[in-house]
Amino acid sequence: MSSQEKSFERVNQKRRTRAELLRAARELAERGVQPSVGEVADHAGISRATAYRYFSTPDDLVREAVLDAVATNIQIDMPGSGDGSEGVPGRLTTLLSQVFSMVRDNETMFRALLASTVTGKGNIKRGGRRLVWLTEVLEPLRPELPPAEFKRLVCALSLMGGIETVVVLKDICGLDDGEAEEVTLWAANALLAGVLARTG
Question: All domains of the chain, ordered by start, with CATH?
Fold first, then answer.
């Protein structure tokens, strides 16, 4: 085996090891467990020393396990070059419906992620993907809004696109999944309509 082939095999082995750790973390999270790195390593049949070379904290491991499983499920309907703001409400509804379904279908894992963020000692940055998705959907509004207001709109709508929204609407408000999604979409579109009314 050439040195190039050996290097390629090492890279593939690292990918397989990382994938196995993420798979094991997801399996434990789906059971409602907040696993340590060592527990994930044991479940995956990988040495603890090796696991710690990939993930130094359980917070990082749980976060990556959740995001790795679901991040590719969101499909953004990008506006065409001639599209104006009139298409934004429909695209926003589609995006938030996809995000809500993603969270609902992986709710146990997302709750574990939220718990690790709240109780973890690490400096974990979350929510970056939703900001990217919302910015893409709202892009046709950028010429119509001052930069600060465009950013404020993205930030406000980000409150309606994650596990935090589900926790509030289901645990505090007592809504079921269908009602929670309906309220989420209603609130997002009411907010957007208010902004559009000021620009019209």
Answer: 3-68 (no CATH), 74-199 (1.10.357)
